Amino acid sequence: MDQEELINAYLEGTLSPEDQELFEKLLEEQPEYKKLLEEHKKVKIAVTLQERNDLKAILKEIDQEEKDRQKPSSPVKSWLFSGIAACLIVITGFFLWINLSMNPGEKLFKSYYETYPNLVAPTVRGDQESTLKSDAFLAFDNGDFENAASLFDRLQNEAGGDYAAFYSGICQLELGRPEKAIPLFQKVNENASQPDKITAIWFEALGYFLLNKLPEGKSLMTKVAASPGHPLQNRAQEILEKLK
Amino acid sequence: MDVKEKQLELLKAGDRETLKQIYLSHKKGFRLFAKRYTSDDDLIDNAYQDAIIVLAENAQKGKIQTLNSSIGTYLYSVGKFILFKSLKKNHLTSELTEEVKEELISESFEEETKDEMILRLRQKLENLGPKCREILRLFYYQAKSLDEICQIMGYDSKEVLKSTKSRCLKSLKDTLNQT
């Protein structure tokens, strides 16, 4: 095997473990091999960065196409900006006041809650007919949680409707109504898959935190913390540590 | 084969339409989710595009043939990690394992984007012929073996491919030394 072949095989990962070991020894002992390998690595990085650049340009083109399909928005007058700025100042003050007056449960909720994304029916313009399900998720993706909640409630009795109770619960949390959200998360079946029961328990626990019912929330969080390999396990353990 | 597996297969084959469909499917949801952390739309879009690139690359390299979660979950987890990193909010948790996080950081080549030699190589790559560019792209970017490249590009012999690849690299090196 010549130098180039050896390096090709090394980069392909097709060297046997023994040959791999020998090659690594060669890299240490003979600087020319090391130099050659470095050159190949630089080519690899250059090719990769160039490809990513091209791919990003394609994604930007897709964005542009989508923008062009939408109507141009009317020009915004400058007085509107002043109004918005004034509102922002009032809102910032309001949130500062809210934050300072939060109880421990609310603080925990605020630190750990994040909107669960739509992973059931992604909304793509123009390629699907309007159904109750697609309307519900469209409203959800648009942040219209009041509408989405009522649509999800109508979907709950359908076969495979576990997701509907779950997302209706998320809408209620978004709307600041944990007392309505909790029973919805409890409706999610043990064997539900997308989203799964443990994720529903996580949000149910957060609902209790928002109500400042720490013992109830903690007991549910223990179940999440004891779910090996679950994406939320670490965060649940973190919360339990804080509650000690 | 379910929808997810089919989409991964198509991504692996470099199907642009599938990439576009996945990109548009989750974009709105990711934006809504990311708005919780920043109001900087460019930053959000960048993180999302980078996550799409990670998905496409890993699908092409066959690294995510057995994805346990949905494609959406994968995109959200990667996008969220990239967003937190660019917001310098590394203390915020992400669902990714430490191993995946380390790989994302090392494969981001953040430092190398400023390396002068790499910048020049990128310029010179554009001057190579289409055949050379394709060989280098398949070998270095898509991590295909020489045997696989022979099949993809219709080479009868691996030896011919090896010497073509070698010539391509030499030509790249020569143009680099000219300037």
TrEMBL record, chain A:
Positions of transmembrane segments: 79-100
Protein name according to UniProt: Tetratricopeptide repeat protein
Top-level taxon of origin: Bacteria
Keywords: Membrane, Transmembrane, Transmembrane helix
Organism of provenance: Algoriphagus aquaeductus
UniProtKB/TrEMBL annotation, chain B:
Protein's organism: Algoriphagus aquaeductus
PANTHER family the record matches: RNA POLYMERASE ECF-TYPE SIGMA FACTO, RNA POLYMERASE SIGMA-70 FACTOR ECF SUBFAMILY
Descriptive protein name: RNA polymerase sigma factor (Sigma-70 family)
Single GO MF annotation: sigma factor activity
Keyword annotations from UniProtKB, A to Z: Sigma factor, Transcription, Transcription regulation
Protein family (similarity comment): Belongs to the sigma-70 factor family. ECF subfamily.
Matching InterPro entries: RNA_pol_sigma-70-like, RNA_pol_sigma-70_dom, RNA_pol_sigma_r2, RNA_pol_sigma_r3/r4-like, WH-like_DNA-bd_sf
Gene Ontology BP term (one): DNA-templated transcription initiation
